[in-house]
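I'm stuck. Protein, please.
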Amino acid sequence: MWQDFKNFIARGNVLDLAVGIIIGAAFTTVVKSLVDDVLMPVIGMFTNNVDFSDLYVNLSGGEFASVQAAREAGAVVVSYGLFINALINFLIVAGVVFMMVRTFNKLKEKAEDPKDKTVKTPRDIALLQEIRDALVKKNEG
């Protein structure tokens, strides 16, 4: 059983997956910071300094200064502003992943181009093939 586990780990796929998850987690942190600290303030500037993270609907009634205050008071809230932030995060990550996959696929297609695989038959081989075909025809007829 131990040997099977070592073979499983040594295949490389598990290591590739682990590296991908670690890089993905770091990338998510960077994108979250980009959205929260760079994009949303700029978007807020064009929307009269609206902080999307504070946009919510209070289903319990009453008025609160922020979504955090409403939650601390036990109010039932729908935090649609946080959803907008999460949606922007997703769109950025999806866009970057799409560009990476697209670039990878183009490189893969270029590497597998059938034009590169065709090898022109050397002239002497072509002549020998013609002679062979002529002899076969002569023997048949």
